[in-house]
Structures are given as structure tokens and as C-alpha cells.
Specification:
Elements: H1 3-7, H2 11-23, H3 34-44, H4 47-54, H5 61-68, E1 73-75, E2 90-92, E3 95-97, E4 101-103, H6 116-127, E5 131-133, H7 141-148, E6 153-157, H8 163-175, E7 181-184, H9 194-199, H10 211-214, H11 217-222, H12 238-250, H13 255-261, H14 263-274, H15 285-291, E8 296-301, H16 304-312, E9 317-320, H17 334-345, E10 351-353, H18 360-368, E11 373-376, H19 378-409, E12 423-425, H20 427-430
Helix pairs in contact: 2-19, 3-19, 6-7, 6-19, 12-13, 16-17, 18-19
Amino acid sequence: MSDQQKFSLSATDRQRKIYTDGMRGNIPLIPTNQARLKKLAKERMTPEAFAYVAGGAGMEDTIAQNRSGFNYWNILPRMLNDVSQADTSVELFGHKLPSPFLLAPIGALELVNQEADLAVANAARETGVPMIFSNQASISMEICSRIMENSPRWFQLYWSKSDELISSFVRRAENSDCTAIVVTLDTTMLGWRTQDLDLGHLPFMHGKGIAQYTSDPIFTKMLEEDDSNAPKISKLTPTGIASVFQLANRFPGGIFNNIQSGKPMKAVRKFIDIYSRPSLSWENLAFLRKQTALPILLKGILHPEDAAKALDHGINGIIVSNHGGRQLDGAISAIQALPSIIRAVEGKIPILMDSGIRGGADAFKALALGAKAVCIGRPYVYALSIAGSAGVEALLRNYMADFELTMRLSGCTSVKEITRNHLRKNIAFAG
């Protein structure tokens, strides 16, 4: 099957396959119902893994509002349009994509599946859905890129305290054929993540989710520096010792040499010391612009004045996001923030959205409000925990089919036809 055939499977083909497989006694790999998907994933994950993936900041009100915000809008379908054919493709930065979905960057995927980012990269390649490599990946961008062939990928950048490391990450992203850089703005420090705190668990403290660092020449050079001021880990539990062995096995130089040298623990301490920069400001963006000609997107913009500033600083795109409710409890929902951001940029740069997307109708509403595309987050991690790469691929195909059906049942034959006229405010929520 050619790439074009793989990417152009219609929604009716997807439905037919599921029902035909059912006649043979084969139920779907993963539930299509999002509540059941999450429930089954929870059963498969460790408590620590589920807390890290599903949890949010504080009382987790922002997580709830990310979902309830979609109820503010109802779809108003149009009838008697010929929807026998449909085109779900979108164009972003000169690249044609088969659907308006991207895979959001999510770190420490080894918590839920041993193949981690590699399994997701496989699913991205099979579906044509762009993958945004996480800065906190469990497998380096180079390894993932090698299996993705011509599939599109971007790189998420967390701005560390080392500009030299930032430059190295960007060079590596370019060499890995990434076609955009996504700067995450809302994690200059970790939010008050209550589920993680109650378990006393942060994956990075166990050497998980730092593969982009341990594979980087600048970071490994930094391990030779004096780290006496870096945070100390005073006592290792059996779990911590196992994490050290795992990290030592992945770290360049061989497991026994690494254990003897203590580099794995130095890597953890160094990462904790430099990973974020609370002093990050608009002025820093000029440095990044000098490092690359790739499109730069800012992820985490929620205020229209910040969107306008992004234009002033030559930014190429925005991802409206509140980090899935993981950073600031009580923050505005992403779908609620989207319309004002759209108005602020006046179509000058593409606007994407994440935080709360759980199906085709959500994507349709976001596009009707002006987004060019949306990012899928937690759901694909749930699918990964249940059925590995095949689970992620199944989820992506389900989302793509759901979106296509929503589009056609609303009377649209292409993404370009989806407009604000297809939405009405829900009086019960609008007040």
C-alpha cells in the first residue's frame, strides 16, 4: 500500500473495517469511547505513570474546563450538500497534511511503554500525522527520525538555562529533518501537580524522559563541570537504583563504565539544575531566530496581547494551549481563549490548538473558530499504554475518521468550508 493510499483511507472504510473485523470476532484494539479508553489505560499503567499522564495542577479545574469549554459551542449542520467525497487535508508551512491533527509533545513515554517515542513515531509514519518530538523524550530525536522516512516532524523546545544547549538542540532538530520548532512557554517552572506530589514521583528524578539531553554533545560535555551546586539526591530507593541502571545502560560509554563514573546520576542532577529558565522573556526570542530559519511556533499563548507580541517578534505560528491543565489551575480553557487569539493575529500566522481535544467534533469546533489544526495529547498516550504503536495508529485513524464524518455530516466537503457559520453558542452555557 502506497503512502497516499494509507493516508487517504476514508471514514467509511475505517468503519467498515471495524465492523467487518467484529463479524470475525475481533474487537477493536482500543476503545473508541474516550472514557473507556482512559479507564482501560489506568488499569494498564502503574499509579505513578497514570498520575503523570492524567494528572493536572491544583484542583484540576483547568482540565475540567478544557472539556466543558467545548460545550459552549454547538455544531449547526447544513443539509442537501453533496458530501459523497471529502478532503480533510490541511496545509501548514508549505506542507500538505492528510488531516488537521498533530501529535502533541509528551515526555517520559517510557513510563507507559518500553518503545516509548519510537512506537509513536511508527504510528505517525503510518498515518501521515506529524509528530512533535518532545524535548523530554525517552528516545532521541535522531533515532525516531530514522524510522519516520518522509513523515513530517517538528521539535518541541524547552528553554533551558544554557543557550549553548538550546543551539545544539536546534541544530540536531534541523539535522533530523524537523520542519518547525515549537517553543513551550508555560513551563518555566513545574506547576503544582497534586497527583505526582502525593506519590512523591517525578520521572526525571529517576532518569526517565531525558534522552534528548543524554544524547547531546553539549550536555554530556557539561557533565564534566563541577556540579557541587546542583540538587543532590541523598538516598536512592530500590526503584531509584533500578532507574540508575536503566539510565547507565542507555548513556553513551557502556553500563559498567557509567556506573563507575557516576555519570548517570550526574546527568539527572545536571538536568534538574538547568532544564528550565524562569527568567525567559520576549527578548530571548531574537537569539532563537538567529539559530534557525525554520518556522518558530510559541506554545502556551492564551492572551490576545501575547499573540500580538508574537507577531511583533516575527513568530511564525501559535499553539493555543494551557498545557492540558498541568501548569496553572484555574486558567482559561484553550477553546475559550482561541477566538480572541484568532482576532488578534488577523490571519497573519497559523493558529493551532491543544488541551482538551477528544474527538472529531472537538477538532471541527476548533477549526470553525479559526484554528488551522489541533494537537492530540493524553489520548494517544492511553492508546500507547494499551496496545503500543498499533494502539496509537488505531487512535489516530479513529480520530481522522471521526473528524471526516463530522465534517461531512455538517455539510462540508473540505476543511476550507468549515467556518464560524457552522457554530452556534449553547444558550445553556453562554448565559
